[in-house]
Write a structure and sequence with these properties.
Elements: E1 2-5, E2 11-18, E3 43-50, H1 53-60, E4 66-74, E5 79-80, E6 87-88, E7 98-99, H2 104-108, E8 112-115, E9 121-144, E10 147-168, E11 178-180, E12 184-189, E13 196-201, E14 206-209, H3 228-235, H4 237-240, H5 247-258, H6 283-296, E15 302-310, E16 313-319, E17 322-325, E18 327-330, E19 342-343, E20 346-351, E21 356-359, E22 364-365, E23 369-375, E24 381-383, E25 390-393, E26 402-408
Parallel strand pairs: 8-14, 16-26
Antiparallel strand pairs: 1-2, 2-3, 4-7, 4-9, 5-6, 9-10, 9-12, 11-14, 12-13, 15-16, 15-20, 15-25, 16-17, 18-19, 18-23, 20-21, 21-22, 23-24
Amino acid sequence: VLLGRLGLSDVYIGTAVVGPTVYGAPEKQGPRPNNAQLFSAPGFGVFRARVGSLLEDKKTKCPVPATIASVGFKNDFTITRWGDKTTVDEPDGCTPTWSRSASQGQNDNSPVAYIKETLPRIFGMVAINPSMPDTVTVSLRLLWNGQIAAFKRGLPITGGSAETRDIDFLTPLAHDVEETNPTFQWEMSYDERNWWPVGASGPHKVYWTQTAPMLPAFPVDPSAVLYDASLEWVCTSRARFPDAGTLPLALSQFIRASVRYSDAAGNTLHPLDAPGIPDGIQCIDHAVLMTGLLRSVGIEAWIEYLVNGADGKAYRYRKGTNEHICFQARAAVEDFVEQNPHFTFHALVRVPSANDLFDPVYGRKGRPTFMEAVVPVDPPRLTTSEEFPILSAAGFFSVEQNVYTQLVCPH
């Protein structure tokens, strides 16, 4: 390139050989200086450029005026928004979940979900401004935390936009059941040696499950849909309650903090409506909620009804007019329920993978500590010992499985 100054201005005029390294038609692909005229044919051409423009372009600017405009995910689980029951990206891979023109709140309203350690597949739209009359072929790569996370070559760029599909990640983005919000740096190259930034996308809201969701998740909801609210409950539990250690315990503490407890009022709404019920709900409703949430992320769980008894029968005694009392538990006051309450039963959640029971009413692991119950002997008698036979079953006890004694609670 031969440059000559144009008068006393900061504009130079020069000649350059137009070959395969100069921006233009397909046979003339290469870097284009800022403010330079395009060449229309091979050979020699004349161009105008301001001082410093070539150096600036080489260091900081992409030779193609490109910016990542939108991004979507493929092969993820179909998510239904709990608020308005609309579906995110249906059918799969057609609608972006992140757009530069949208607000962060709007982008967060289109989350995606994968099994943990899955390598996602994404697609994107690159905006070209000003538009390009010719076609060039480039490679794209994504950087995440400074490392190359995904790569795609052979993308044709022309006109005002270009779509790239089926970009596969090279590294997992999560190893646990959690919510992540990654931001990706996008870069473009002609030769895969020199890379230019074309903008960032994100944060992208991504939920990561243990295995495929077990749908229908809630026993009271026959619809086989995966709600974003369920994913948010479970995938943010450990971040909200880091001292819990395990996911089931963290989730039980999250439910305790969010849902009020009453031994009188039941939930007639969907389990996900539980936080908005001011009068509280019973232990069985807490257990239904926790079970459905865990199943939404592919963790098997079921409800166990805890009673005092033996040989498959629940032994009961009387407190006031209630003849169905099964035991008294040692517990602090919880919302609308008194200290050391008497139970006809107590619903817990069995999580086989954790090999334990969890109590979403009190936010703890294991069964309650007992203070009083009937000793199932002949004749039955009351005991205040904390050690006596306890039954738990995945089904509620029928009338035939109850033994009603004449014993009366002493307090």
